[in-house]
Write a structure and sequence with these properties.
two-stranded antiparallel ribbon, single chain, 71 residues, alpha+beta, 3 helices, two-stranded parallel ribbon
């Protein structure tokens, strides 16, 4: 699903960057190497609730839009 979503969004002309784990996302947020316009999160990210990251993301990137998906 992650790769399919990334390909679909890229097909619309957007740059994409994917993370497969909670730790990987936390690391990227601490040391952003790219500019983000939108963060798309799975509700559960390797057994952890991605909602835990909302405050952290908004602290680091206050203008960012966040979309949470759930299967």
């Amino acid at each position: 699903l992650l790769n399919h979503l990334a390909r679909t969004v890229a097909g619309e002309g957007f740059s994409t960057f994917t993370c497969a784990s909670f730790a990987e996302l936390e690391n990227i947020l601490k040391n952003p190497v790219k500019r983000f316009d939108v963060v798309v999160l799975d509700r559960l990210l390797h057994g952890r609730d991605s909602a835990e990251l909302l405050t952290r993301i908004k602290e680091l990137l206050p203008e960012i839009k966040i979309m949470i998906l759930s299967a």
